[in-house]
Amino acid sequence: MLQIWNHHKCATGFMTRTLNTIAEKNGLQFWMDDRGDADVSAARKQADILHIKNAHSGMLSDPDAGGIHIIRNPFSVVVSAYFSHLRTHAIALKTGTWVKLAQQRERTSVLNKRDGLSATIDFLLDQEFFPATPGPLHALSNWPYEDQRFFPLLMEEFVKAPVTNLLSAMAQSGNDTLPYRVLPDDSDLTFKKMSNGRSVGQTDETSHYRSGDPNDWKLHLEPEHRAAIRKACRPVFERFYPDLAEESKSYVQGSAIEQETLPDPKAEMASVKIGDITLAYRANDGGGKHYLSRGHSEEYLSRFYPTLRDALAPEFCIDVGANYGFTGLLMRRAFPDAHLTLVEPIPWLKNYITYNFATNRTTFDVLHSAIVSTNAAGTTSSFGVNERSSQDSRVIAQSNWTVVETPVVTLDQLASNVGADQSVYIKIDTQGWEERVFAGGETFLTSNSRWFIKTEFAPMWLESQGTDPQTLLRYLLDRYSVHESVARVRWNATCLDDLLGPPLVAGCEKDFVAYVRNLALQDKGWVDLYVLPLPAQRNYATGNRRLPSETSS
Asked: Please, what is the average pLDDT of the chain?
């Protein structure tokens, strides 16, 4: 008999899959229940493995109670609950409708994140947050940890190697009489498997398995939240998480983000204020210092975003080559309700992106630490990191660059959840890898009629990545409507035609590439291109210019 005593948001789904897999492989009976008044005594008579998913001290008078008790950092419990209750957790359950969760979702959906997290703490402390069931913070704070019938297993350790750590806990607790013969492999029970291929820390706000990072709470909880959680769950912190039992006194420039959550503690960090956006970057990174230049302030003020919003109203935004997250922040600012996907292959930039979104008190939906390419590239690829200037890193590394291995995704995969009639804005800046990005998105781009792409076109960089610039331009002109982006959008632009100008035409490839090369010394010129569906396939208007008095900001 194996008994697992668990709590809501303490890897109940992860544990259920692990236990059910063990049961199926060994012909054992598996029983689970998420009600606090579950008849565990009756279940023992018919099952070999029991999973009590909402355990609490009121259930422990049963003399046969005992086994392994799952515990999770209460900070993580709150953050996980906030996001899942807001979006992904089921309200219609086998046992009926979870009315209180429906009410909680309605309540938090109109609150900002700070107030929503406070409301979540209260909800998790509710003595009746689920029928006959106290909330997990209430249950954790009132558990009799001195009861020797229960062996504590920290969720943070369990998920690293579920089967191995479960067997270890069984042996240490004396609860090792389960008649198993075949066990699943730990590699089959990982966050990556549960989240459809994401690595730990690759966040998807629309997934029930959102992040997998045990330190993700540091990006969301304010001092007031941490104080309330510590007060409620002090026995848990003092016994299992003593390093978190007291508040850190060190903060970043007076903000609520602790020093240990800095994106790159070993590197000096600088920041720049662009409008109402604060962007942190590595102080010695030329790519970061580039945000001090005039062009980024112009992009912040540009009529491009409101004009695109009025014409296309993007429901999805995809930023390929997110760097420190500035363009993603602009996308979120302009299209607050859009599903926002960011892709950035430089490993340490992932932390900066997360940090910059947190400090600007906003969120993205998915962050891939990967390159965007074709299926032919395989599932992983080498990538060259230019440590002197992150914005000029490339898939094919140049001399003396750091080479890392990174996952590969395609544009088709990134857009796989976009409906046929839904609208998408895509930014592509991959330092010469654009040919593969477009090739890997051809299925989506030829089947959807409501997309708009802004992509870099830099002949010298394209050649460094094995692409002939004229061939790429000809490929685009054969399939799509292609326009040269002017450096600055007029202040009174009101429709896309004000941005686009006439399209490039087939036969101009040689002259246009020569023109772009000469825009800077040593053939280092570049431009951005706007790429759209051909007019006959396009399902949105680019015209309908309005008077300046009618424009929206």
From this structure: 90
